[in-house]
Write a structure and sequence with these properties.
Oligomer: single chain
Strand content: 15-25%
Radius of gyration: 38 Å
Largest sheet: 8 strands, mixed, barrel
Structural class: alpha+beta
Length: 712
């Protein structure tokens, strides 16, 4: 089929129905160019085009011809890199046609009638199934128009289009009278078509906005231009019953036989707004208690401080972990809900109560609160919490430790004020339970020192001041080396060699924790591979990781990469978890541990029995080894209770099919006694202190005092 050289429309001339389709196509699919081309006898030419004034259409003409020849939809996301693009000049102006989508018009007999295509000067990354369906629906509408040779937009076709789109479709004339009202509009607004057609469009506009709308309609009818044409806006509409609701509307305007006409696609977004409100609520409120969360509390605090004075209480529940561990998480959650209700009931309505996480709460009191009144309020809260909670038939006694910060006395910034209240809380907890502490300058000095220490941690990572030392783990029967435990040290340039107790609490909350943790894994694996090449048979490497490493989602990948890099297997590694991590065994941590265990990596429970971890905690964790704490081993030969505890842990491990390792072995008497109780492995100063890998004891095989004594 030969395409005429002229860009002019052919056939019956400019017809509003076809122009309406190309206008709708541009608006609905958000493209600047829309073309409807038809087959007339032996010619294929443009019938209607939108956005053609500033573009050369030779490329579009050729692509439309391709669609007509194949009778298949054609999607060209970027014309510069598509095989269907003709080599004809791409443009005669400043802009190039890059995106193209075309659908053939085929009648019920399979005869080609033309092509509906859209284009843009910008390439697209995708043109999804929903957009393609819209284009095909518009093509079906155009097909119906051609077949029936109508000169106005047919009610039946536009109704089908609106039904597929799931939108209300309304048109009005220059006088603002409704000329079309489809079934979806009936459903949304409650007016039938017979009730709506001929009525002013104001019937869907709340009364308070009608004057503004009338003025806008008058401007459009005078100038022929709508500033909202082609734009999607959100506004409030009104139903027949007078109820208001949010809608999303997209407008189009065109010149009809009797003047300017306006069409609107309208979508009821009530459900979407409700979802957004729920998400907004969840973003600022704690799901368990309904109180403000940390984010919501911070925003409220910022607003109050901006207006003037504020008092902040940072609160930690005393003895809550004992309750949680004894009765389980379900009872613990119920207790947290009870705490929330009690706190709210004790305070005036202007107070904001928040749950910041775990058993941490916060209270904001607006207004000019003096230190004395803040302390009195805290004492009243403490007194009220002497009354126990009764849950599931059990009386549970908990208390409050409270830190207090005042604005602007202690800080003029919301984040700083909350931090100062937290520091005061830490001081309160240092002196015992159920205590109250107001922030004061000495605590500020601690804050400064803490910040300086954090800066030093960052520098330590940049300068490579971290070091691993290794302590042997042996078979107790013959004291043969079976593994080592890697222990982190900090070679501080001024304070010398620092042990984890000096820096671990701060490091675990620092941004460099992940970086240091990854270094520990890689360095320990590297050293194990070096030892094996040197002939030292190390069966396993035990690693101590940070709590943050279990929640970042990358632990398995990090360990896997280190194992592959140094040609090790998962069984070569054993991860040691502390009671702190065990008691935080939420879904994230359990998932991380389970993934490691599934890969063949062993998991040891370090210092078992020294804190609040119970058998229920142990049962949830995929551990393969229990490590008896050094304090029990120390009492093994001195106190009957010590021997009983060690024996119980060994029996527990045997019954759960877990390996058991004793820590802190310092005498041969302890080694022999542990063997008699059934413990097969251990570590301690009897066999060697933690030393760097560079120490001669490793390569000289003199890591064991007993071997040195016997000449081995």
């Amino acid at each position: 089929m030969a395409a005429p050289a002229s860009k002019e429309k052919f056939g019956a001339g400019s017809e509003p129905a076809y122009d309406a389709i190309t206008k709708f196509a541009s608006n609905v699919l958000d493209v600047p160019i829309s073309i409807l081309s038809l087959v007339l006898k032996d010619e294929h030419g443009f019938k209607s085009g939108h956005g053609l004034d500033m573009y050369n259409v030779e490329r579009a003409r050729a692509l439309c011809a391709h669609v007509l020849e194949t009778l298949q939809p054609l999607i060209v996301l970027d014309a510069r890199f598509d095989q269907h693009v003709p080599s004809a000049p791409a443009f005669d102006g400043e802009q190039e046609l890059r995106f193209f989508a075309g659908v053939p018009l085929v009648n019920s007999s399979g005869h080609p009638l033309g092509v509906l295509c859209i284009g843009d000067t910008r390439p697209r990354e995708r043109f999804d199934a929903i957009a393609r369906e819209k284009l095909e629906d518009l093509a079906a509408l155009a097909t119906a128009l051609v077949e029936e040779s109508r000169t106005s937009l047919p009610d039946r076709a536009i109704s089908n289009f609106a039904k597929v789109m799931g939108l209300a479709l309304i048109t009005s004339n220059a006088a603002g009278k409704i000329t079309y009202w489809n079934p979806a509009a009936e459903d949304i607004f409650g007016h039938s078509a017979s009730e709506a057609i001929g009525k002013p469009i104001q019937i869907i506009i709340p009364e308070r906005f009608r004057d503004h709308h009338v003025a806008g309609m008058k401007r459009v009818s005078t100038t022929g231009v709508s500033n909202l044409s082609g734009k999607t806006i959100e506004l409030v509409a009104v139903r027949k019953n007078g109820s208001e609701f949010p809608v999303e509307m997209r407008l189009a305007s065109w010149l009809g036989p009797d003047g300017i006409e306006i069409g609107a696609q309208i979508h009821d977004i009530t459900d979407r707004r409700e979802r957004e409100l729920r998400l907004e609520h969840l973003a600022h409120h704690d799901a368990l208690t309904g109180l403000a969360n940390r984010n919501g509390f911070s925003k409220k605090l910022e607003a109050v401080i901006a207006r003037g004075h504020a008092t902040v209480f940072a609160i930690d529940l005393d003895r809550f972990k004992e309750v949680n561990d004894t009765f389980g998480h379900a009872v613990g959650d119920t207790l947290l809900q009870g705490v929330a209700v009690r706190l709210v009931g004790l305070l005036e309505p202007s107070a904001t109560v928040a749950r910041l996480g775990g058993d941490e709460f916060a209270i904001l009191l607006p207004g000019n609160g003096a230190q004395s009144s803040a302390t009195a309020t805290a004492q009243r809260l403490n007194e009220a919490f002497k009354e126990p909670f009764v849950l599931s038939g059990h009386r549970m006694q908990i208390g409050l430790s409270i830190g207090i910060g005042l604005a602007p006395l202690h800080a003029e910034d919301a984040e700083e004020l909350l931090l100062r209240a937290d520091l005061a809380l830490l001081e309160a907890k240092k002196t015992g339970q159920d205590n109250i502490r107001v922030f004061d300058p000495p605590i500020a000095n601690q804050l400064t020192a803490r910040r300086a220490f954090k800066d030093e941690l960052r520098l330590a990572t940049e300068r490579g001041e971290w070091e691993l030392t290794y302590q042997p783990q042996v078979r107790l029967s013959d004291q043969e080396l079976i593994g080592v435990e890697a222990l982190l040290r900090w070679k501080h340039p001024e304070r010398g060699l620092l042990f984890p107790a000096d820096f671990l609490n701060t490091l675990e909350t620092h941004l460099v924790a992940h970086e240091v943790g990854e270094w520990v894994i890689d360095e320990a694996c590297r050293q194990m591979a070096v030892w094996r090449m040197q002939g030292l048979d190390v069966q396993r490497m035990a690693l101590n990781l940070f709590a943050a490493q279990f929640t970042n989602g990358n632990l398995g990948k990090t360990i896997g990469q280190a194992l592959e890099k140094h040609a090790l297997s998962p069984a070569d590694i054993e991860i040691e978890i502390t009671e702190t991590i065990a008691l935080r065994s939420d879904d994230q941590i359990l998932t991380a541990l389970s993934e490691l265990r599934d890969c063949g990596i062993n998991i040891a429970f370090d210092d078992f029995g020294t804190g609040f971890a119970s058998l229920s905690t142990l049962a949830r964790l995929p551990v393969t080894r229990l490590k008896i704490d050094r304090s029990f081993v120390h009492d093994l030969c001195n106190r009957p209770q010590g021997a009983a505890i060690v024996s119980a842990v060994i029996s527990l491990g045997r019954s759960l099919n877990l390996e058991v390792t004793a820590e802190g072995i310092e005498t041969d008497e302890q080694r022999i006694r542990l063997l008699a109780l059934g413990c097969r492995e251990g570590q301690g100063y009897l066999f060697g202190k933690p030393v760097p890998a560079s120490d001669d004891c490793w390569l000289d095989r003199k890591w064991l005092p007993a071997r040195r004594a016997s000449g081995g």
